[in-house]
Amino acid sequence: MAAIHALRRAAELFVGLLMALMFLTFVLQITIRYTARLGWMAEAFPVLDPTRYGWTLEFCLLLWVWIIFAGCAFVVRDEDHVIFDVLYNHVPRGLRRWFVILGGLAIAVGLAVSILPTWDKFYILRLKQTATLKQLVGDWVRMRDVYSVYILFLIAVSLRYAWVVWRTIRDGAPKVQHGPGRLDE
């Protein structure tokens, strides 16, 4: 359990760093946008030349993709999701157990089955370069690298829901939540 906690903390730190990097890139975009209106600024300070910063938009989009998929796969807990449990809360515990098992299997199998077709599409993406990131990191970054986090997402969430199914088969359905912080059978 300590290893899982440490991995979760590492994922939180990683996603937090990505968010900070995205924020700093956004601040850089704003700075360049407003200094670009002053023609003398780029001449006096060549580092503020707006032609050097075309990569910032694509970099923010790359970070956003990684934040969403890494965050959903490794940081967001089941309790953090919005759930529609009106029916679930009003059926017997045995039926709730089947709801969790069938729903979890549908998610785990659906995502797991999509891994190979997605990987096949990634084969094509290995050839495509990003439009502007080569200004920042060179021309070795491919679109496959940008979207590779999606494969991690598919694997992690499939395994997470397989674990939910296993835990439900072993221990029964999770308890019903009635009101803030109160669990009942």
Structural class: mainly alpha
Got a strand count? 2
Contiguous runs where pLDDT drops below 50 for at least 5 residues: 179-183
N/C terminus separation:
26 Å
User: What is the overall silhouette?
Assistant: elongated
* Largest sheet: number of strands, sense, barrel closure: 2 strands, antiparallel
Tally of helical segments: 9
> How would you spell out the order of helices and strands?
HHHHHHHHHEE
What is the domain tally?
2
- Mean pLDDT comes to 88
Rg is: 22 Å
Largest sheet strand order:
1-2
Strand content: under 5%
Proportion of helical residues: 55-70%
What does this structure look like?
The chain is mostly helical. It folds into 2 domains: 1-76; 81-185. The chain contains 9 helices and 2 strands, in the order H-H-H-H-H-H-H-H-H-E-E. It has a two-stranded antiparallel ribbon. Strand 1 (176-177) and strand 2 form a beta hairpin. Helix 1 runs antiparallel to helix 3 and helix 3 packs parallel to helix 9 (149-171). The longest helix has 34 residues, at 2-35. The protein starts with a helix and ends with a strand. The model is unreliable at 179-183 (pLDDT under 50).
